[in-house]
Amino acid sequence: MTVVRSVEAIPIGYREPNDHDRTRYVCLVKATTDDGLVGWGEATAYFPESTRAVVELVNGLRELVVGRVPTETERVWRDMRKHTWWYGNGGVASMAIAAIDLAMWDLRGKALETRVLDLLGGPVKERLAGVASGHATLEDLGALADEAARWVSTGLHGVKVGFGKLGAARLGFAHERDVEYMRRLRAAIGPDKKIMIDLGAAVQWDVAEAVRRVQAFEDHDLHWIEEPLGHWNPRGYKTLRDKTTTRIAYGEREFGVEGIERVLATGTCDVLGFDPGRAEGLTGFIHAVERVEAERTQANAHAWSTAIVTAASLAMSWATPVCRQFELKPTRDVAQYELVSNPLTHEKGWMPQPQGHGLGIDVVTEVVESMRLT
Ligand SMILES: [Mg+2]
After folding, report:
1. How far is ligand 1, taken at its centre, from the CA of residue 200, in Å?
2. Are 262 and 162 members of one domain?
């Protein structure tokens, strides 16, 4: 079988209209085999300095990958984890492993002329609902509710709204105003759409405030509250769990299986967030969903960077029962719609299965080059 001939780290920056036009950064990995197959991966590093750090780590890990056959995804992943024993087990090392692992899975599918979804065992569900996942940025509560109504008017099955983000919305900071927003949002989108609220790092609720907010939001049927007490607060989450019935989502800031096990062991995480471009790739995701299923909780695939992570997240979301919906950025952006010639989006609110060999995306190299950091 063909072997990997080269592994290239490509740091890029792109404008993100869904995040107040901020520039976001990721490190792509392009792995090429000796017979010309190309696999793409991504490290969702988000910041310029972490993206550059990932470049260095990918360059260091390259020697573990070159010469390997593309079907060795699990072994290469284990070798990379072993190699990073001193500086890894989290942080940028997990992102570098993620980017290479995703590229290996893409190559594996291409070498075997198979979809990654089928390598994962194939779809385990009839359909997968899409939801909009956006940041609240407008000042006027009515305008914010109307904006969300526009997002779901395409057929999407719900909205996840980021509080405490850039812009003038100032959601998350004042109880009465937040509750009024929730009331207007529910009125605008109707009773059948799901509402998820995701607290940004700028919002710092204490436990009492989280309990009071979630109890008030429950009158308007909140599907889940995400990171209301940050990424790690087991006692606070236990209190919130005891006093409310809304699902609690967190875990997306963990880097691998150990962190995920720690979160699940608290018994307070109902929806485990997971970004395969951050937490050791699709192989990391496979190990995570097995544990999530054993705990009878849900997982939620993060897909808020480029189409490469979206393709991996979508394949896994079809291949496991624990992922029950799929998030899409509401505004078309270059990372999803121009970086690849075949963007992944919903059809009347339902997500398609990824098609084509490997991850099933056709990366446009000219667009990659136009975004490349120097
Ligand atoms: Mg989140």
Report:
1. 8
2. yes
